[in-house]
Design goal:
The chain is mainly alpha-helical. Helices cover about 55% and strands about 0% of the residues. Helix 1 packs across helix 4, helix 2 packs across helix 3 and helix 4 crosses helix 5.
């Protein structure tokens, strides 16, 4: 007996796009909306899958940009470290105490004639 034809609703499309943008696995999304496989999900929701992550990243970047323009120093530092490869430099302190190297010598017994 053939499976019924899937006719995605607008609500399912919005949900898939949102969940993809939040990082959910495709197989989990498929199960949530009642589809048996991630392959079927990709066949019927290709546009939502392609746009979900892009739109979520764009919203986050827009929010961060707004915070920077408002003078949020933490947001500015985050942007510069991530996007402009800025790094903090200062005195380098060892994470553990420096221990002098030690030598190991092995003395082998000489064979007796």
């Amino acid at each position: 007996m053939p499976r019924p034809q899937l006719n995605p609703t607008d609500e399912q499309r919005r949900l898939v796009k949102f969940l993809v943008g939040m990082g959910a696995k495709q197989i989990e999304i498929a199960q949530l909306i009642g589809i048996r496989s991630d392959k079927t999900l990709r066949r019927h929701f290709r546009e939502e899958i392609n746009r979900g992550v892009l739109e979520a990243n764009a919203r986050a970047a827009q929010t961060l940009s707004k915070k920077i323009s408002e003078g949020n120093v933490t947001a500015s530092i985050f942007w510069l470290k991530c996007r402009a490869n800025w790094r903090e430099e200062g005195p380098i302190e060892p994470k553990s105490p420096v221990v002098a190297p030690f030598n190991v010598t092995l003395e082998l017994e000489k064979e007796k004639p």
